[in-house]
Each structure stands twice: as C-alpha cells, then as structure tokens.
Amino acid sequence: MLAVYLSKWQSTPGAVLPSDPLPTKQSFWASSGITQARHQVEESKSDVTQKAQFLAVSALHSGDCLLVLPVASRGFKLDDEAVRVAVALHLGLNLRAPHTCRCGATVDTLGQHSLICKQAPSRIARHQHLNDLVTSALVSAGVPTTKEPVGLIHRDGKRPDGMTQIPWRSGKLLVWDVTVEAPQQSCVAAARGQGEVAEIAATRKCQKNYPRHTGSFQSPRRLWTQ
Predict the structure, then answer these.
(1) What is the pLDDT confidence band of residue 217, given thresholds at 50, 70 and 90?
(2) Distance, CA of 158 to CA of 163 (rounded, Å)
C-alpha cells in the first residue's frame, strides 16, 4: 500500500522524495499537491481582475491580519462592520449597490473605489497611521527616526514622511514616503505577478516627488529585503 501511495505521490509535479528516513510532517507530503492546485486555479482565471485578486490574497503574509491580537488600545480591534468590509474586499465580494461617489467617480458593487478616493474622510488618518507603523517598526529595531523632516527638497518644499537619524547604508540616511495602492484597482499590473503594483507605485512616487533624485531611491520590496 505504501509503495502504491509513494508512486502516486511522486507523479505530482514538483514532488521529490528524499532519502530515508521518510519525512513525518504532513506539510511535506501536502506541499506538492497544494502547489499544483494553486497553479490550476491561477491558470483557470481568464479574467484579469479575478487573477489579480487571486494573486493578492495568495501573496505571502496576506492573511497575517487574522493572527493579530484584538488589542483596542493599539487600534487592532475591529467592529463587526469593519470585519465585514475587510473580508468582502479581501475575497472580492459585493459590498454595496452601484452609485456615484462625491468625487464624481462611479463606484461598482465591489466598493474598491473607497480605498483610493482622494475625498474619503479617513484618507489622511489612515496615511498617518501607516506612517506611525513604519516609524514604530524602525524605532523598535533601534533605528532613531524623525517624521516629516524639513529642508530635504528645495524645489517645492515637499516633505517625505520620515527619515532615519543615523546612516542606513553606504553612509546615507534612509528616507521614506508612505503610499497605498489597491491591487484590484491596478488589476493589469497585479496580474503580472506579486509585487508588481508596489513596484509601479514606488517608481511613480519617486518620479512625482523626487524628480532629481529618482536614481537613488529603491522600491519598498527591495528596501526591506536588504
């Protein structure tokens, strides 16, 4: 019976049987089947929006929000309505009836326009909260930082969201600017692969805010993996 099972298991693409002793963890035996099933689901997505949504929800750490402790003092405790909206956005479910936003844009049943609407009342608060998270992460790692430093850009007076107070790499300080993109709103780019939307957003941010220094800035994905 074991020989029959091993023969069938090895017929799965990507399945490589190690030398004895055989692994005892279920994750090893299930990984090849899960990978095959994921490829089959991805290939079945003919619609670019569905493919972008699938890549977004299957990306590494996309479900980490489910592991966060609901601590109200840290803003981690969501009410029922917030959970409903978050789950619907994550799975691509219908949220509301189609209507026209105050900004003039047409909002479909998925309700994803609210993530990028420049007239959303919570837009500034969400941006500041994200910037606080980046700052807290650096401070927790022992890197002193300052938020919204002045005097870095002389042309238009714009300020980045933060800067380290000690050299980050090659004797240079690290400067960051928080931006948010919804993968489903950039479905064509998102369908090319994970991280594509972040790369495009980082490039656009640098070209818009720092035209004279674009070459020295790095995308978020490359930055945090170094």
Answers:
(1) very low
(2) 14
